[in-house]
Design a protein that fits this description.
This protein has 353 residues and is mainly beta. Helices cover 14% and strands 49% of the residues. The chain has one domain: Beta Barrel (Porin). The protein contains seven helices and 15 strands. A hairpin with a 5-residue loop joins β4 (122-137) and β5.
Length: 353
């Protein structure tokens, strides 16, 4: 009895079927996504390497994530994997029934190990990510659409303040080895050495991505603790050979800090891809990010936001050498906000200082 689909999931590591309408990305940080993805004008930690390197100049303390693991699953993923383990994919009738049971459902699975080190003006990271999304279509002749993206690489960035620390300018670079796959598999494919077929279908490539960013603080214009940011991402090296490319895009954002009696809070709004370089669609609502973060007792961070029109929430608990993050957000996989939602849940455990 052959359990081909579960074996395939392990073989491709935890890959990613990015559905046709999901925007491409290198890495989604837990803190930014808890804030609805609004981070261009915040970016004051190692996440700046992926959102806006100018924010590295606003880092105040040394921080390191020595080891951490991140797991992300879609709403339908655990059920799909459980049923796959009980299915004999050597039997075409069972394979077809399995696919029909999940007709039209999207499934997402992600795993990341992203250790990093950050200090005022500088950060570096080791990137290891894999994501898998799947969807079954065509009830009469069921087909499994699979896209796979797995990245391994190194990244570093530097930022410098100017004009009495009001203007922050930064740059980052990442070297990435990528494997990707975008394929459609029939019932016959599932029943005939699919693991070998997927190995043959994987595309590989290497690339160097450069990001440039600017943040300007508006204190001179009587907007205390306010700032605007702009970043240009994936410049000068978005091609990965035969593997899926990383699309260039330019994002803008605004952030406001408030020092309240019981908490310190940050509010942010972003608009990503202002030149519509993502060719999936031109929907404005999918490009808007809104978010907030509140800090309590220096160890609890509560986050909430709207990402592509859907609610996001994040909780971060920080002890001396360990950190725990919980996150939920929804990805729009349709052509416009509100069409097709894929709700996702994620957790991260980090050992560091």
């Amino acid at each position: 009895m052959r359990k081909i689909l579960p074996l395939t999931i392990l073989i491709v590591f935890v890959s990613s079927l990015c559905l046709a309408e999901e925007y491409p990305y290198i890495y989604k940080g837990f803190r930014p996504m808890g804030m609805g993805g609004a981070f261009v004008a915040v970016s004051n930690d190692a996440n700046a390497l992926f959102y806006n390197p100018a924010g590295l100049a606003d880092i105040e303390n040394i921080q390191a994530s020595i080891f951490g693991i991140e797991i992300e699953v879609g709403k339908n993923t655990t059920g799909l994997i459980k049923d796959a383990l009980d299915t004999d994919f050597g039997n075409e009738a069972e394979s077809a029934q399995f696919l029909r049971d999940y007709m039209g459902d999207s499934s997402h699975l992600g795993l990341a190990i992203v250790p990093n080190y950050s200090m005022p003006r500088f950060a570096l990271t080791i990137l290891g990510t894999g994501r898998m999304d799947m969807e079954v279509r065509d009830r009469q002749y069921p087909k499994l659409d699979v896209n796979v993206i797995s990245d391994i690489g190194l990244g570093a960035g530097y930022a410098h303040p100017f004009l009495d620390n009001n203007l922050l300018v930064g740059a980052s670079a990442k070297y990435i080895h990528r494997q990707s796959l975008t394929q459609e598999y029939t019932v016959a494919d599932l029943s005939d050495k699919l693991s070998d077929t997927i190995k043959d279908d994987l595309k590989k490539g290497n690339g160097i991505l450069v990001d440039l960013g600017v943040i300007y603080k508006l204190s001179k214009f009587q907007f205390a603790n306010s700032r605007v940011g702009i970043s240009a991402n994936n410049l000068f090296g978005g091609g990965f050979g035969d593997a899926a490319d990383a699309t260039e895009h330019v994002d803008i954002g605004f952030a406001q800090d408030l020092d309240l009696k019981v908490t310190k809070a940050t509010f942010a709004i972003d608009y990503i891809d202002i030149f519509n370089q993502f060719d999936q669609d031109s929907d404005i609502a999918k490009r808007i990010r809104l978010g907030a973060e509140c800090k309590f007792l220096d160890i609890i961070f509560v986050r909430a936001g709207l990402y592509q029109g859907y609610f996001t929430a994040g909780l971060n608990l920080e002890a001396r050498i360990v950190r725990l993050d919980l996150l939920t957000y929804a990805e729009e996989i349709g052509a416009y906000a509100g069409q097709r939602v894929d709700r996702r849940y994620a957790g991260r455990f980090v050992f560091g200082f």
